[in-house]
Amino acid sequence: IKKIGVLTSGGDSPGMNAAIRSVVRASNYYGIECSGIRMGYDGLINDMVVDLGPRSVRNLINRGGTELKSARSEEFRTVEGRSKAAETVKKHNIDALVVIGGDGSFTGGTIFQKEQGIPFIGIPGTIDNDIFGTDFTLGYDTALNTVVDAIDKIRDTATSHNRVFFVEVMGRDAGFIALNSGIATGALDILIPEQKDSIEDLFSSFENAKQKGKTSSIVVVAEGEKLGGVYDLAKFTKMKYPEFDVKVTVLGHIQRGGSPTVADRVLASRLGVAAVEGLMAGKSNVMAGMQSSKIVFTPIEEAIKKHNEIDKDLIKVADILST
Ligand code: F6P
């Protein structure tokens, strides 16, 4: 391998920049050239390629977002789009790709690899932590810390005014951010898509809280939970308990930004080096992940098809501690 192309695709996540830096510096260490592709797969289609050297990624490890920018490319879903992308790869003599993104980005990479024979390795970059084959995805730890910081602040005002707050957090179809931030902030209840809660379960949490003399409560709601959105939950709660002062906060895209935590920077650094070494060893169509502190390569099909399971023990911990 003489030249690696690196791109970030899908929703950005803190730590993507640290991973780009790692891929570029590891390539340089092994005497491999590196090109950055801007705007994800769209940049591959439209020839948005820049040369990257060890100095071009200085001061990047601590920055949120992605310097290469990211996109969810519609055109790359088409054969025509992918054959244009292949022309760019050939034009720049790129031998292999490192794709930093989520399962949608990996699906694109694997189809591209099969059609055009271009080797690629994926690095899991998403705040949702929903990718199989790694204990943690890039950006998840930072997003969790952002959420915990925000809910701590909400708790201050909730307590001062004896209020009930429904806080919606991201995670798409997964409840990792909700469950872990809920435990970390002492939420009264946590609603996640992986668990079939009913509105009665929520009301019994409130009954419990009333009996215990709690005067304020935080309920963390994953955006993908199935009971209805935060606004409906707030409405039903107000109907049932007119005496409650109910508020809603949707944290939104604040969860996607910010300087990555130490855990995300180290994870990004390790996975970037692993991806380059993996390509050098002839691996392709795999994702570099971390399991029990060890680098593990998972076939991309498996990473896409399977899903990280929510740890049932954590649900139990949340239940025990919220009483
Ligand atoms: O996958 C990351 C994520 O932030 C999800 O948690 C969320 O559902 C989605 O992306 C939001 O996407 P967009 O930034 O396109 O609104």
From TrEMBL:
Binding site for ADP: R21, S22, V23, V24, R25, R155, K212, K214, T215, S216
Subcellular location: Cytoplasm
Binding-site residues for ATP, renumbered to this chain: G11, R72, S73, G102, D103, G104, S105
Short name of any one Pfam family annotated for the protein: PFK
Gene Ontology CC annotations of this record: 6-phosphofructokinase complex
Any single biological process term in GO: canonical glycolysis
Cofactors that this protein relies on: Mg(2+)
GO molecular function terms noted in the UniProt entry: 6-phosphofructokinase activity; AMP binding; ATP binding; fructose-6-phosphate binding; identical protein binding; metal ion binding; monosaccharide binding
Catalytic function, reaction form: beta-D-fructose 6-phosphate + ATP = beta-D-fructose 1,6-bisphosphate + ADP + H(+)
Matches recorded under InterPro entries: ATP_PFK, ATP_PFK_prok-type, PFKA_ATP_prok, Phosphofructokinase_CS, Phosphofructokinase_dom, PKF_sf
Metabolic or biological pathway, per its Swiss-Prot or TrEMBL entry: Carbohydrate degradation; glycolysis; D-glyceraldehyde 3-phosphate and glycerone phosphate from D-glucose: step 3/4
E.C. code: 2.7.1.11
Domain Phosphofructokinase: 3-278
NCBIfam families linked to this entry: PFKA_ATP (TIGR02482), PRK03202.1 (NF002872)
Record function comment: Catalyzes the phosphorylation of D-fructose 6-phosphate to fructose 1,6-bisphosphate by ATP, the first committing step of glycolysis.
Protein name: ATP-dependent 6-phosphofructokinase
Gene giving rise to this polypeptide: pfkA
